[in-house]
Structure formats: structure tokens, C-alpha cells
Amino acid sequence: MELKILNKINEPKDLKNLTVEDMKKLAGEIREVLLEKVSQDGGHLGPNLGMVEATIAMHYTFNSPIDKFVFDVSHQTYTHKILTGRKEAFINPEKYDTVTGFTNPKESEHDFFTIGHTSTGVSLASGLAKGRDILGGEENILAVVGDGSLSGGEAYEGLDNAAISKSNIIILVNDNDIAITENAGGLYENLALLRETEGKAENNIFKALGFDYYFVKDGNDIKSMIDIFEKVKDVNHPVLIHMYTLKGKGYEPAVENEEKFHWTRPFDLETGEVLGKLPESYLDIIDNFLIEKAKNDKKIVAITAATPSTVGLNKFRKVLKNQYINVGIAEEHAVAFASGIAKRKAKPVASFFSSFIQRCYDQLSQDLAINDNPATILVCGGGISGNAETHLSVFDIPLISNIPNIVYLAPTSQEELEAMMDWAIDQEKYPVIIRIPTGKVVSTGVKIKSNFYDLNKFVLDKKGEKIAIIGLGTFYSLGETVREKLIEKGFNPTLINPRFISGIDGELLEELMKNHELVITLEDGILDGGFGGKIARYYSDKPMKVLNFGAQKVFTDNVPLEELYKRYELMPEQIVEKIEKEL
Amino acid sequence: MELKILNKINEPKDLKNLTVEDMKKLAGEIREVLLEKVSQDGGHLGPNLGMVEATIAMHYTFNSPIDKFVFDVSHQTYTHKILTGRKEAFINPEKYDTVTGFTNPKESEHDFFTIGHTSTGVSLASGLAKGRDILGGEENILAVVGDGSLSGGEAYEGLDNAAISKSNIIILVNDNDIAITENAGGLYENLALLRETEGKAENNIFKALGFDYYFVKDGNDIKSMIDIFEKVKDVNHPVLIHMYTLKGKGYEPAVENEEKFHWTRPFDLETGEVLGKLPESYLDIIDNFLIEKAKNDKKIVAITAATPSTVGLNKFRKVLKNQYINVGIAEEHAVAFASGIAKRKAKPVASFFSSFIQRCYDQLSQDLAINDNPATILVCGGGISGNAETHLSVFDIPLISNIPNIVYLAPTSQEELEAMMDWAIDQEKYPVIIRIPTGKVVSTGVKIKSNFYDLNKFVLDKKGEKIAIIGLGTFYSLGETVREKLIEKGFNPTLINPRFISGIDGELLEELMKNHELVITLEDGILDGGFGGKIARYYSDKPMKVLNFGAQKVFTDNVPLEELYKRYELMPEQIVEKIEKEL
């Protein structure tokens, strides 16, 4: 790779003397760099390829960090990072890990927020603008939003408020005609109409909200972008620029398969084939099970908020199109919608990624739980992970299990998961949420026929004495390992599968007191507000010691899983050591 | 009151043979009934007076409960209740309490959901419509939304999805030119434009979303409403009717002061004066304190999501208009907006009613906590109450205190509240949330000068032995009462004010082990996921008994406060009895 121009760019001001032709060449060099890095290291490819020119034009025209850019979701900021002193992290493979995949104020003064969830950018930018006005600043505030985020309620609340502000705020809508998956909703039909008419259609949601609206038909043309930015720079009122860009631009496989390359694992640059094959996961289990069940029961409908492949609906959506609904990035709607479907006696199954279900606590409580409608909700990916701090999935247990009326279940194996889904979908009594296990699929090979009407009934799997291990969901197998190690040391521990996260089995816990002196709980989530705390509270005035194992209440950012396990003292040896100390 | 027509109406079908003239008379009778009841018993007056005619027309034209009505917020459903077999609860003072203030499926087959939070109606109705389509039903689904709800993100997500559905759904937008307070946002400017042009303006947000749009200029005219309903009944696609109604219609004081009569305590029908005067509350403390502080610091800005008078900004908004922002019903935006303002180094104070802060968990976590911006958030009304099940405020402790980085504080007196607000607003280190006490104001008369940088430092107020009482926030005074009762019985209990909800003081808890054998915790919220559980976990393997007192994880509906205290064993005698049993 020869990076003639990029080699000379170390900060935004180095752009200022380039010609448009130079900047076009720079865009080409950046694309090469992005393709090289993402093909080797994985990451968000399509969104970044689409934003190269607009980002160059932003930094050419405006004066960052005095002028402030807020990138919604911030998964499209690789070019921004390259232009703001962080190019080594993209050019030099040894430094690939020195930047995160999102904006990050700890990395650079050009980043203002850590952002990873969608639809927040306009509100955050509005805050910067208001702060500027209060303090008498004069800089431009520019929010980049799009790529599916516009369907989220927070984006609308932000636009609705930004539109009536009386000072400078520039909203750049990056319309690439695609979210993570196909777009859904009237808004996207309006965007299509505006694209067709080059912004001239009478029906225009942005004008209706009150924005001074501009359309740019080719957001991948640097000159067009510089022109529009020069025009709106230093405006004294809210402005919205609607630009059309090509997601994946410059890499044919990413243009042809926008979804596959929205975020990708490492791939062969030549063929576009992703390297390595993922082993079967619990997402496959969900997918296969739901397809089989829904084929035979047309009352079943599967719902996703724009992320079918991370919530076990990847095959379902192709095989059973008529029983599949993608509501777009709109988690709040998804939950209320499912509640309404269940009320009308059909069978909704709405599946979410754990970190994103955080967006609809109030809907789970008000629209679903108070109304006690028997919808089935799946929570995928829950548990400790090496994810970015914006995508942690360790908070769902405190969030969900403390809502009245909701039955929150934690299966420990493929068969138990299938039995729980089967029951949840057919029963008509409770809102049921299932925490899908993560990691390697555990299969016992023995079909489970039980139902789960007998709420909060724990299962005593191995009857022992002195020590009782309660292993929740994914951590049941950790419980098995710990038990084996304790057996080696001459103990005979009891092992319990609690199955229910949202309540405890007082009878069984009482029974344990007869011949146990220590109960340990294992949960794959934070301890504060969690499952183990309920056990600790149960025994708090009784002669039983309790040790809770789980994650700490902290945001961790791309810390490897094994390191987190060690830090949280969740390695089997660490657990055994702590147990021995207690006895 | 002579109720010539209403006397003959016991169910919707009794309307079918009335003439329009009769229905107008019926509307007059219903208004009289509403005014009589609400003036005596309190309730939502303005929204109900505005919806009388439209509701009569709905029941005249459609066939409830086969055709299904979903009322957003459902505080405008008194006429609906009167027409669906529940008129006695409005006419007969002895039966006033036999219905709730919201729709309630337990009361009537004409009600489909328990709803009390705004902006959910379109999504819930979309679910009913989808369920109908799956099961091959043919009924009409009609959602009534408006009165400020349209600014909420969930309403937009619902509209965005409803607009592209391929079958019958009728959205009735009740545009009364007012939310609870003044409207805010570009949407409301668009509604005003549409009213002025009788729906003909080019800029039309509903058409932009794809709806088949109809405008009714007088939604209080029964004939107009019947005409439009006849026209859209049984349509095969999404339709949106935008009607203009007069909030408070028929009662001059309610028209003139729409906010005062949105919800009102009992009042003098003649003069419109509210009966009785409320004692000084913690909301007054907030209001007065913020006004004084903000007068001297122009960097301070107070933010509400449309409910200034229930969050301590009633005077503030009038006295310091330039430092006051009402973002409309848009809690998600409010939190992200505050985070952005704090990032830009101004000083936002965003105040919420506890039950409504549930709408922005993800924004508290992602937009605020991960970014660690020093915004101040106030949570008002938190604690056990006799409220409707949709307005309980017992869930904020599990919700907020288990988010990393957030400092959640619980003041026990006026002076401590003031010290906490003072510190929170000026410090630049943490996102701080303060749980405003409820009930009678406790004033020590002694100004507190301390800061709260020393996180999770509990205060040992009375040093005793054997029993330690940890009384959180509002329940600190309950702790004092319990302590006195124990002293009478010859004990000498320790009393602790923890101040921090989001963490524990390990050092102090360790110290207690020297000469205590029982720690009791008192918190005004649910125990599951709460504060006491953290204490129980701390001592779970140590020789200390712990008893947690607080609310159970259940939805309670208009249960009197004292009954709840008894049920949760929170009466001082009950607590003392349980303590004695332990020793």
C-alpha cells in the first residue's frame, strides 16, 4: 500500500491545503487501509466505507475539536479516527488494538462521547449545543445520524426538540438505504421518496418537523459535501442535510451484501468469504426450534428489532417470511407490539440482544408485565463478555428479574431451552422471558417434557451435604466443574439448577439447612441487584453461610473474557479456594 | 341532575338508536356527571371533558368490544367507562371508588390494557391488529392518542410501524393544542400548522410517515365525528384522523387553565378553586433551592419532561424562564440532552417523577453513566404509595442503583437534600442522581456543609450496640421511631444514615461486627434488587444476622398507604416484633 497523501495527514488541519483531487486520492487510500484492517481484524466495514468522503469533507470544512462532531452509534468513525491522529491503529497491524470501534473521549479530544447504542446522537449533540449557548460559545455542532438509527424513539425525540432550537445545530442524515438489515417503517418509505425526487417531494418528515432541509444526492462526492458544509457552516438555526451514500462503497462484496458486511469477522479480501466457521451456537438452537414449531402453528410470529442474526432468527426470516416481523430499530415498540399480539391470543416471540433490551424496561414493566400478557421474549447474548463497554450484557438480570409478574427463566442446556420455549409459547398465563445461554452448546441428549407452571421450583440435581452449589443458566456447568473439584478434595456437594431467575424456592432452601452449612450461587451477570442476592437475603437471619459469585458492577471495555473471569474470581480454582476458606 | 338520556344507556348498543340531537344532550349530561364527580373526588378533568363527543361517536359507530379501542395513557376514558356499563361509578358518590382512573381489563371487556404511561397506545393497538390478522379476525382496531403523548419515542416507533401495515388500523389523534403543560417540539408546531390550514398544509408529518390522513376541525361535534368514523370504518389500511378538540370543554375554568385541570384534586365547582391547601413538600424545597442557586449561577439549567409541577419546578419555570427547558414527554431525550450539556461544562438539573424515569434506563446507562458526565438528576415521588399500578414508584432503586458509575443519593432531611443538590450541581466528577424524599418535610434547622466525594461513606448517627438500624432516605425517620421503641424495651440500638444507595460502606459494616448481632435495613422501595440486599450480601458469610424491610415485588393498584405498610410489615410495632424474635 502506498499512502502518498495519508502519510502527510496527522491531524485535521493537514487537510486544509489539499485540493479536491488530492482528497479523492486520500479517500482511495483510506478505503485501502480500511479494507486491509477489517479483513484481518474484523469490524464495521460497510458503514465506514460509506462515510469516507463525508468525513473528509467534515474535517476539511469544520474546525474539530472546536467545532464538535457527534456520531450516532459511532460505528462509522474509522475515517474520523484516521484523520484525528489515530491512523497508526489502522495502518499498522501491531497497533490494531490501540483504538476501540467507537468514539471514545479517552482516545482523543476529537471524540465527545462513548456511543454504541443507536439513536442517541441528536440528543447528545443538542446537549452540546445548549451548553455552548449557555456558556456563550460559537462553535458548530454537527450530529451524524442514519444507517437505521432514525427509527429509534430517542432519535425522534431528539429531532423533535432539535428542530425548534433557536441556534446552530447541523444534523447530517446518512441515508444509505439500509440499516443493519432491511429498513422498516414509514420513515424509510419517506426517505426513499425523497431520494427519488432529490429532496423535492411534498411529503418530507424533516420539513414537517421544522428543519431547514437540504438534499445531497451523492454523499460520496467530496466536492458536493464540501459545498453543502460551506453553505451551512455557522448557521444560526437548526439545519438538516439529507445525503445519500453507498454503504460498502469501494468493495463490491460489501455493496452486494450490505448486511453481511455491516459488521464482519475477518474475511478473505479477494473472495469476500468470512474466514473460519463458527461452531453451532444457542442461536442456531433457537432458530431451528422456532422454525419447526412455527411451521406447525401459524399463530406463532417472530419479532426482531433489526438484528435477526444476533437473536436466532437468521434462518427463520428466510424460511417463514410470513411469520417474521422486523420492526426496525424500535425495541420499545417491539415489546408493546408483542404484548398486544398476545392479548389478541396469537403467539408472539420477540427476541433481543441483551444489551439492547435495556432500551425497553418501561415497556417490559408497563406494556407487558402489568398487563400480564403471555408473550414470549428471548434475551440473547446475556453474560460476561469481552465486548465494548457499550455492548455489555451483564445487566439484564437486575433489570428484568425485579419486575413483578414476569417469569424470567435460565436454561442450562439445549433440551431445557427447547422445553422452556415450547412451554412459554403455548402457555397463556404469564409474560415469560428466557435468558438464552451463551458459549458452547450443552446437550444432554434427553428431551425434557416438564412444564414450568410451578413457578420458582428449583431442581436438586445432585444431592450431597455441607456445600450446596446453585448454578444459574450458563453457569450451571461451572457449578458442575466446581463440584467435581470439590469431590476430588473429599467433599460431596449438592448441585442445584434453579431454572427461575425471577424468584426463589423457599422450600428447597429451607430443606438445605438440614445438612448444609454453605450455599454458593453462580450467575453470569452483575451481583448487584442480581440472583444470588435473593438467596443471600433468604438466609440473612438464618444459620447458613452464602457466597455469591458473579460480575462486579463496572463497565469493562474490550477486556478479554478470561481476564474478567479471573478479576471476578470466577475461575473454578478461585471458587474452590474461597469455599475452603469458609469451612 | 336529571339524566334523561344517560339513564337509558347501559351499554354501547343503547346508543345505536339515538339521534344526533339526543347524543348532544347525552354529552351535556355526561359533562355534568364528570364535573360533579371530579370536583368531589379529584381526577383527570380536562382530558375527559374534551373527549366526550368523540367517545360517544366511537361507541355509536363501532361495535365495542368486537371492534377494539385502545386509549393512550387512558386518562381520558371516563366517558368510555360511563358508556360501557360503569356509569354508577360516576353518578353515585358511594361507588366513586369502584373504578380506576385508567382502562382496566379486570373492570370491563371493553378495556384491553391497563395503561397509565403515555405514548404506548399505537404500539399496543398494532399488536391487536396483528393478532387479528393472524387469527383471521375482521374487527376494527382504533387507537386514541394525543394530549402530549405524541412527543414520546414509543409513540413515534408505533406510528412508524403502523403506517406501513397492510390492514385495518385507525389512529385517532386527539389534538387539543396542549399536553399536560405547554407543548414542545417541532411536531407540535406542525400540528398547529395543520390546524390553521384545516389539514391542508404541505408539511404534514403523518402523510410523510405514509398515513391516509383526515382532518376534523371540530372533534367536539358529534356529527362530524360520526361522519368520519362511518367513512373509515372497515378500511383495509392504516388511517389517521387528526381531530381538534377543546381540552376542558364545557367548564370555563378548565378551558382557561388547562394545566391546573389536567388532573385536579377536589375543587369548588362554582369558583374553580382547589379545596384545601397542601402542606409544604420536598418539591417546594427543590423549587426554592434551585431558584436561589440558579439566580446566582447562569450555567444552571433545569429540565423537565412535561411535568414541572410534580418534579419541583413549578415556581422555577416562571421565575427563571431562560434557565428552564421543557422537552415535552421525551424522557429519553431529556437524559441524553442533560449528559451533553454537562459535557460542554454547563450545569443541567433534570428532574423526573420516579415512575416515568423508568422510560430511560438505557439513556441513564449509555448516554450518561458510561460517559461519566456530571449531570444532576432528581427522582421525585419515589417510595411506596397508594397510587395506581401504572404509577408506582418503588422500582427506581433496583433500576438506578445497579448502574455502574452513577452516584445515587438518598437524603433524609431538607438540609441534607439541599447539601446534596448543592454538591451535585457544582461537582464535575460524577453523574449524580438524588432520590427526593416524600411525605412531611423533616428539617433539622442545621445547615449541612459536607460534600459527598467520599463515596459510599455511611454516617453513624447514634452509636449503640447489639442492633444496628440502617434507615435509607425517607425511611431514616422510621428508623428513629423503631430505635425509640427499642430503647423503651431496654435496648440501645445504633442508627445509621447511609446517604448512598448505590454502594455500601464496608469499613463501617465491618466495624459493626464488633458489638452488634443484628443489622436491620429500612428502604422505601422493593427489596428485590434493592439496597438492603447489598447489606445482606456483605454479611452473607459473616456472623451477623440481617433483616431487610421494604416493599414486596408486586404491582398494587390504589391500595391505601397504611394498608401497604401493614402488608409489608413496615409498621414500627411489626418491625420491633420481628427484631425481638431474632434476638
TrEMBL record, chains A, B:
Residues 280-444 form the Transketolase-like pyrimidine-binding domain. Transmembrane segments: none annotated. Pathway: Metabolic intermediate biosynthesis; 1-deoxy-D-xylulose 5-phosphate biosynthesis; 1-deoxy-D-xylulose 5-phosphate from D-glyceraldehyde 3-phosphate and pyruvate: step 1/1. Signal peptide: none annotated. CDD domains: TPP_DXS, TPP_PYR_DXS_TK_like. Its EC number is 2.2.1.7. SUPFAM superfamilies: Thiamin diphosphate-binding fold (THDP-binding), TK C-terminal domain-like. Its cofactor is Mg(2+); thiamine diphosphate. One of its GO terms (molecular function) is 1-deoxy-D-xylulose-5-phosphate synthase activity. The keyword Magnesium applies. Keywords: Isoprene biosynthesis, Magnesium, Metal-binding, Thiamine biosynthesis, Thiamine pyrophosphate, Transferase. Homodimer. Belongs to the transketolase family. DXPS subfamily. This is 1-deoxy-D-xylulose-5-phosphate synthase.
